[in-house]
Design a protein that fits this description.
CATH class of the largest domain: Alpha Beta
Strand order of the largest sheet: 14-15-16-13-9-12-11-10-17
Helix content: 10-25%
Structural class: alpha/beta
Low-confidence stretches: none
Number of helices: 6
Oligomer: single chain
Strand content: 35-45%
CATH architecture of the largest domain: Roll
Radius of gyration: 18 Å
Largest sheet: 9 strands, mixed
Order of helices and strands: EHEEEEHEHEEEHEEEEHEEEEH
CATH superfamily of the largest domain: 2,3-Dihydroxybiphenyl 1,2-Dioxygenase, domain 1
Number of domains: 2
């Protein structure tokens, strides 16, 4: 089994790095950690980076997950190749770009690009953000899935991911005590569906709601509260149509033996207990 320790970063292509930078700093509230000619890396917590925009196709995006060491990486390569999933060890230059000691690259059955990462860098510089969004860290990703049942089986059979809850056939998967680090949503597309950052409080969500409205950033869901994770949330659209989410108060699952996943309907009340309705394609029938 591939034991993932944390979701580490998201890398996304964009044709307009200047616009992506402005959004990440002035809207999202991140902090630049590294900049080269064709890429911008941003901090959201103690890690050296958790989001990277690079000059490229917006459909080219990748999620990184941390594993313990080189032995774990090598074992993962053997397991994935045994399942017929081609793997590639990143070059030294590619690993350096990702601020990690080593990186294993592969794609799942949905053609989502995934990376397993050894020793992602921490830089010792406190994240403080360019605006007070209240961000406490990068927390989870939503992924597109043409077959959520098939893809759930991959994550739960091949990795240490466990189902916390389901909305219809869309599973919310945890790899530690946090309710979910991965969510799989029905879609004909591939890649990252949304990117989540945790914030300290509901006040932070509402302050950002006011700022987003002032800046005319499209709000696509919320404010609301998820009945699954209990988190208060706000979803909004970023560069190239990527959806971002702030949330606060996500449930922790400490007692694995006592916890049982729940089934929620794939309709607005399964996504929000306050009555908000999503205008996100993957959240609608």
């Amino acid at each position: 089994m591939i034991n993932m320790l944390d979701v580490t970063y998201v890398r996304m292509g964009t044709p307009d790095l200047a616009h992506a930078r402005k959004f990440a700093l002035e809207v999202l509230g991140l902090d630049v950690s590294d900049q080269v000619r064709d890429a911008l890396c941003f901090k959201s917590d103690d890690r050296a980076h958790t989001l990277c925009y690079f000059k490229g196709d917006p459909a080219d995006n990748t999620v990184g997950f941390e594993v313990a060491d080189m032995a774990a990486l090598e074992a993962a390569a053997v397991r994935l190749e045994g399942l017929g999933r081609p793997v590639r060890l990143a070059t030294a230059s590619e690993a350096e770009q990702r601020m990690a000691r080593a990186v294993l690259m592969f794609e799942d059955a949905n053609d989502n690009r995934l990376e397993l990462v050894v020793r992602p860098a921490y830089d010792g510089r406190r994240y403080h953000g360019t605006r007070d969004a209240g961000i406490t860290g990068f927390s989870h990703v939503g992924l597109h899935s043409r077959d959520p049942v098939r893809d759930e089986r991959f994550w739960t059979d091949v990795t240490n991911a466990r189902v916390s809850d389901r909305i219809g056939d869309a599973p919310l998967l945890r790899i530690d005590e946090v309710h979910h680090s991965i969510a799989l949503f029905p879609s004909a597309r591939r890649g990252v569906q949304h990117v989540n950052h945790q914030v300290q409080s509901s006040d932070d969500i509402m302050r950002s709601w006011a700022l987003l409205k002032e800046k005319r950033v499209p709000i696509v869901f919320g404010p609301g509260r998820h009945p699954t994770s209990s988190a208060r949330f706000l979803y909004f659209e970023g560069p190239d149509g990527m959806v971002f989410e702030y949330s606060s108060g996500v449930r922790s699952i400490a007692d694995e033996l006592a916890y049982r996943e729940k089934q929620f309907p794939f309709e607005p009340k399964g996504f929000c207990q306050w009555g908000a309705k999503p205008v996100i394609a993957e959240f609608r029938n």
